[in-house]
Design a protein that fits this description.
Radius of gyration: 13 Å
Helix content: under 10%
Bound molecules: FE2/S2 (inorganic) cluster
CATH class: Mainly Beta
Strand content: 35-45%
Order of helices and strands: EHEEEEEEEEEE
CATH architecture: 3-layer Sandwich
Mean pLDDT: 97
Low-confidence stretches: none
Largest sheet: 4 strands, antiparallel
Structural class: mainly beta
Strand order of the largest sheet: 2-3-4-9
Oligomer: single chain
Number of domains: 1
Length: about 110
C-alpha cells in the first residue's frame, strides 16, 4: 500500500478542492477521481469500470452517486457499488483529512 498526501494543511486542502466538483488527481502514474462533500472526501478510480470512459466528466447526484457520461451507469461514490448498470464496482481508495493534508492510500 502506498500513501500520498495532498496539500500541507487541512484548510489548504479544503480551499483547494471545492465541494461537489469532480477532480482529476495524478498520484504517481495513477489517475484517480476525488470528490469533496463537506469535510468528507471520496477517492475512486477515474475511469468507468464499464468501458473506461473518464468519470471526471461524469455527473454527481444529490444521492452521492456518480453518473458515467457515456452509458449513464451509476456508482455510489462511498462504497463504489454499481447502482444502475451491469459491470463491476468502482475501485475506491481510503483517505483521511488530517492537519497536514489529505492522506490517500492506494493498494
Ligand atoms: S463507459 Fe461508463 S457506463 Fe459505459
Amino acid at each position: 500500500m502506498k500513501t500520498f498526501t495532498l496539500g500541507t494543511s487541512k484548510s489548504q486542502v479544503l480551499e483547494m478542492i471545492p465541494e461537489r466538483s469532480i477532480h482529476k488527481i495524478h498520484l504517481d502514474e495513477k489517475v484517480i477521481a476525488l470528490v469533496r462533500l463537506g469535510e468528507i472526501f471520496y477517492a475512486f478510480q477515474a475511469d468507468c469500470p464499464h468501458r473506461g470512459t473518464s468519470l471526471i466528466e461524469g455527473t454527481l447526484t444529490n444521492r452521492g452517486e456518480i453518473i458515467c457520461p457515456l452509458h449513464k451507469y451509476r456508482f455510489e461514490i462511498k462504497s463504489g457499488k454499481v447502482k444502475v448498470g451491469s459491470c463491476g464496482d468502482l475501485e475506491i481508495y481510503q483517505n483521511e483529512l488530517t492537519e497536514v493534508g489529505l492522506k490517500i492510500w492506494l493498494p
